[in-house]
Each structure stands twice: as structure tokens, then as C-alpha cells.
Amino acid sequence: MSWNSFPIFSFITLGFWVLAIITMFFYNRNSKYSTLTQALMLLGIISLATFTSFLWVELQRPPMRTLGETRLWYALFMPVIGYIVLIRWKYVWFAGYCLLLASVFVLINLLKPEIHDKTLMPALQSIWFVPHVIVYIISYSLLGASTLAAIVGLYMHYRKKDTETFIRLADNLVYIGFGFLTLGLVFGALWAKQAWGHYWTWDPKETWALITWLGYLVYMHIRHRNPHWKSLSLWILALTFMVLLMCWFGMNLLPAAQNSVHVYAG
Amino acid sequence: MSLPRKLWSFPWSYAESFLIGFALCVTAIAIQFFTRSFAPLPSFPVNIIVLCLFVIVLILLFIFGRNNSLVQWMMSIPATIGAVSFFGLISLMMGLIPQFPQAPPTDILHNITESWLYFFSLVYILTVLGLVTLKRLVPFKVKNFGFQMNHLGLWIVLAGSSFGAGDMQRLTMETQLGKTEWIAFNRWGEPVEPGIAVELKAFHIDFFEPSLQVYDTLTNKSVKRIKPAYLTQSKTSFTIGDYQVQVKEFYPEAMAMGDGFKSFIGPGSIPAAFVVAEKDGKKYEGWVNPQNRMIRGNTVYLDEGLALILQPSQPKRYVSQVKVYSSSGTIITDSLQVNSPLYIDGWYLYQVSYNQEMGRWSETSTIELNKDPWLPVVYTGIFMLIIGSVFLFFRGSKIKEQTL
User: From CA B228, how far away is CA B279, in angstroms rounded?
Assistant: First the structure.
């Protein structure tokens, strides 16, 4: 099993998710539909999870090194978060968005597959590798989800409709996502100490991760102090996600990052 | 976790916080420009004394200045946002502008971590964060435990790493096979005697297998879609893209001999394979090998501007067998590799590099010696932040219980 079999699994996954999105339109009409939606979401997740675990075995290393591999994890975790939000708060629209976003990531990987490289440089061979990346991807998924809530909230704000539901959802997601973001940063620091001799070297990826972290810090403090500044808070949330994307994907383009130890192929 | 009501009516708010940040910024640039010096980086014992004084000032401000509106502002969220934004802006500059530790003081933007700008932003954030932490620490309440883990933890990480920076030593030592080395070099290239001697007893590298890849001669890149084949032995065949490839001969280590290659285990050797690729009845054959200083690289050209190349082996791990002596008389014999440092008498030893030209025949191994007496302080803060993040998960769920 390798990226060669990715098309099969991704078509199965996308098939389930497209059907799930269609059934979502009838979600509240009948309990049979809601069960069907949830089942379809889960089947898609299981299909992608199966592929990911086989890929892990085949590559003989954790599939977390290249950007394409991190997109794969994102496509896996995003629907999981959508599923939990759907079960817990019954936000159908939200689960739908999560599926849509995950599908986009699956499609990107379909159109732009990665090199099938099994080499893992010595610096990455550490017990910290898997927790560091997994924690970050969970965090990015949650914060991506909070951005969705923020965008819908902003839309509602400019349509002069109530934004309370969306900002509350964003808050929940940001707190949990920020917890994971902190863990990711801190695990990275502990790993860096072991691999490079210092826990913080202002490597461009570290710097951008810190800026992202500070952005969410500002959001949480403003929400705490001025809960009525809703549109400002939502804007901060949306803009901070831009910084997060910069940290995740934009690194390779930066002149400041040409010597970064975090710039990888793909 | 809402703040006391009285905080809402303070005269100073966001505007003042940003203006103070801006004033600090201008002052910092002026100091650096006129004195042409970097911000101070005190080492032991000055750093400890300054840190203690700083903490005492914060405590005194907290005790006697509680009713002073300036101190009250320093404990407010607008001041927090001002300080965090200032620090964030400086980080953003570091994220956008390449940094050079050798840049002189007049070149502020290329050496921010040593600048007064960075120094002032740290003082701003440590003051506000310190006072905010004190405010919630006294009187101590159990419900503030998570808050303390996050805020005090962050304060300890920032204070420990910045005040401890002057005591940190990072030295590079070049060790030679069979010899004992006791001189290391600091980042300015000056020799230092760290009181640690390292004898390199053996050096060893494991490689990943070399891989046969399809290369696009037009774009000068490997074709990422096509899965490479990892070579371990002769007389094997693979499907690579649309081609059926037979490996007739394969030598993990070889030397050019006449028109071909022969197995040779020694310095200067490279992997080489004789391959036959077949597609639609057409055959393409020849030697493939990466190049080095002595040997020219060979590729087998296929159709459509494609070629088969042999990608050189990537190192899987490199290990130095070392005997380390400290001036206190401690002797450790152990192996040193990336991600697994050695500890002796306050020093961490890291495997950094080796003679890449010589590869597995390298007779030198570069080791970093690292001493950071403040590491336990920073780790205490990091440990508190880990606990604090778990509290954030619960805080998130608390909001949903209240509102949904």
C-alpha cells in the first residue's frame, strides 16, 4: 500500500462524504437521515484512516514529513472534529463545512501527490516526532474549524443577524485548539533541546508558530475583556488563521526561511 | 474567570497601551543608534541579582501600588494586549527579515534578538505578565490554579530563558579519530577550554538504501508521482512508472573501472547499478550512479526527456563512540548520536556533523558542547504550561456547558 492506491481510497472517502453532505440537507427532518449522515461521515473517516495506517506501515516511518502527508492528517482530523461537533451540538452546517474542507485537502493530494520517499533524516528520528506533529494537526484542525465559525459569524454580523452562536462555538474551539497549539509548541521546544542543543533558536518556523500563538492569545484576551466587540474578535480570529497558514505552507516562499530546518519537500 | 468589576473603569486602556509600546520602540531604536551597542546580556552573578531586584520591584509595586492607577493599568488586559502586540510585532519582523547573529548594532533589523527593541519588549511583557500573575496569586484560590499554570509558567519560561541567556555556552568541538580533544570554539570562533575532553574511539554511519528514481531532464527534478525503487541487491526487477526495470548488477559501494564499476569498499566509493529498462518493447540500458569528486555521474536516458538516476544514499544515523573526561574526574564511555545527547558535569554533548566528503570513512566528528544552568528553570515553566494547556481543554468545555 502506498500513494499508488491513494486514488481508490480517496474516491471511496469522497464518495461517502459527498453522500453525507447530501443527506445533511434532510438531517433534521427524520432521525433515519441523521443516522445515515453520521454513518456516511464515519465510513469516509474509516476509509481514509485505513489508508493512512497502511501508508505508515509501508513507508516504514510516520507519514508526517512532507506537506502532502500533513494534509492527509488534516483531512482525517477535520471530519472527526465535525463529527464530534455534530453529535454534541447538532451543528449540521458545521459538519458539512468540515467535510468540504477535508475533501478539498484530499483533492489537493490527488492532484499533487508526493514523492514516495522513505528516508527520514536523523534529526526527525525521535520519540517527539509523532506527538509533536499529531498535536499540531489536531490544533490546526480545531483552529481551522474556529475560523469557519468566525467567517460565518462575520457574514451574519454584516447581515445584521445574531452572531452569538457562532462566536460561542469559535470560543470553544479556540480554547481547545490553543491548548493543543501550546502543547505542540512546547513539545517542539523539548525536542529541539534534544536534537539541536537549544529549546528555542528563532528558526523561522518557530518564529511563525510563536506569532500564531500570540495571535490567538490576543483573541482570547480581547474576548475576555470586551465580549461585545464581536466583529473585531472575529476578524482577529480570521486574520490569525492567515498567519497559521503562513506558518504551515507559506514558509518555503519566505526569504527569511531559506535556511530553516523546517523547510521540507512537497 | 471574570476579572473584578473595578478594572473596567480604568482611565488607561488600549490606546495608551499601544502608545507606550510605540514609545518603547522609539526609545529602543534611539538608544541602540546613539550608543551603537547591543542590549545588555548579563551573566552570573549579575543576572541573578538583576532578576531578584526585578521580582522585588514587581512585588513592591503590587503591594504598595495597588491603588495607583498606573500599576492598575499594568495589571490590565489592555496593557497585556499592548505588550503581546509589541512582542508579536518584533517576532513578525524576525519572521520576515533574515537574521544574522554577526550583524552589527547599527543593523538592528538583521539582529533583533540582541537589540534593545527585543530587550524592551521583554521588559514590557515580563512586567505586565508578572503583575497580572501576582494579582491572581495573592490571595491564592484553587480555582486560579489553571490560570497560574499558564501565566506564571509563561513568566518563568520567558524570565528563565532571557536572564539565563548570558550563562549559556554553546561550543563546537572537532574530534579526530583516535585522538583526545579538549579545545572547543565559541560562536565567534575563539578557542575555549570547557574542562571537558573527548576521545573519538570510532565513528559509524548507517545509510538508507540508494534509490532508483525517474528524473525529468527538462525541469531538472525527480518525478514525484513515480515511486522510486530502493536497491538492496543485484538481479532484482521493479516497475518504475511505465517501465519494467531489471537490475543486472548492483554494488552498494563501487569504484569506476574501465567502462563499468567494480565493488570497492573504501573512501571515495559510490553506489552503482547496471540497469535495463523496458517499455513497449524498447530497451534502455546502462550504468547509473551518483557523482562524487572523483567519479562522473551516469544516467540512463528514457523516452520523453525522462531519465533513470541513482539517488545517493541518505544517512540514516551516525554514531560517535566517545570517551568523555571531565575536569572533576568523571569519565563516561558511551555512544553519541543525533537526538540522543550525553550528559556530563553540567554539559550536554550533541552529535552535530562529520566530514561529509568522506561519508562513512569520515575520521572527524563534530560535537556541540552545551551548558545551560538555567535549563531546570525553563523546564519548570514548560512543565507548568503543559499542565495549563490541559486546563484550557476544560475551560473550553465549561463555556459550552454555560451557553449551549
Answer: 17
A245 inside domain: yes
User: CB-CB: which of A197, A221, A254 is closest to B81?
Assistant: A221
Residue B342, classed as helix, strand or coil, is strand
Q: Which residue of B has its CA nearest to A164?
A: B403
Q: Is B95 on the interface with A (CB under 8 A)?
A: yes
- The reply to whether A207 touches chain B by the CB within 8 Å rule is yes
Measured in angstroms, the CA of A132 and the nearest CA of chain B are apart by 13
Say if the Cβ atoms of A183 and B98 lie within 8 Å.
no
Q: Nearest residue on chain A to B370, judged by CA atoms?
A: A197
Nearest Cα to Cα of residue B322 among B178, B169, B191: B178
Classify strands B347-354 and B342-344 as parallel, antiparallel or unpaired: antiparallel
- The range of the structural domain enclosing residue A150 comes to 120-266
Q: Does B3 touch chain A (CB under 8 A)?
A: yes
Q: What is the pLDDT along chain B (404 residues), one digit of tens a residue?
A: 444 444 445 568 888 899 999 999 999 999 999 999 999 999 999 999 999 999 999 999 999 998 898 999 999 999 999 999 999 999 999 999 998 888 899 898 999 999 999 999 999 999 999 999 999 998 889 889 999 999 999 999 999 999 999 999 999 999 999 999 999 999 889 999 999 999 999 999 988 889 999 999 988 888 877 878 888 888 888 888 889 999 999 999 999 988 899 999 888 889 999 999 999 989 999 999 998 888 889 999 998 889 999 988 888 888 999 999 999 999 999 999 998 999 999 999 999 999 988 888 899 999 999 999 999 999 999 999 999 998 887 775 455 444 43
Where exactly are the structural domains of chain B? 14-167+376-403, 170-195+318-370, 209-313
Any domain includes A88: no
Helix (H) or strand (E) holding B347: strand B347-354
Candidates B392, B397, B399, B401: best to mutate against A (most CBs of A within 10 A) is B392
A185 falls within a domain: yes
ipTM: 0.89
Mutate to test the interface with A, among B5, B96, B207 (most CBs of A within 10 A): B96
Other C-beta atoms within 10 Å of B139: how many?
A: 6
Indicate the number of domains in chain A: 1
Residues 155-174, chain A: which have Cβ within 8 Å of B? 168, 171-174
Cβ pair B116, B31 in contact under 8 A: yes
Check: CB of residue A238 under 8 Å from CB of residue A150.
Answer: yes
Euclidean distance between CA atoms B375 and B381, whole angstroms:
10
Instruction: Evaluate whether residue A136 is within a structural domain.
Output: yes
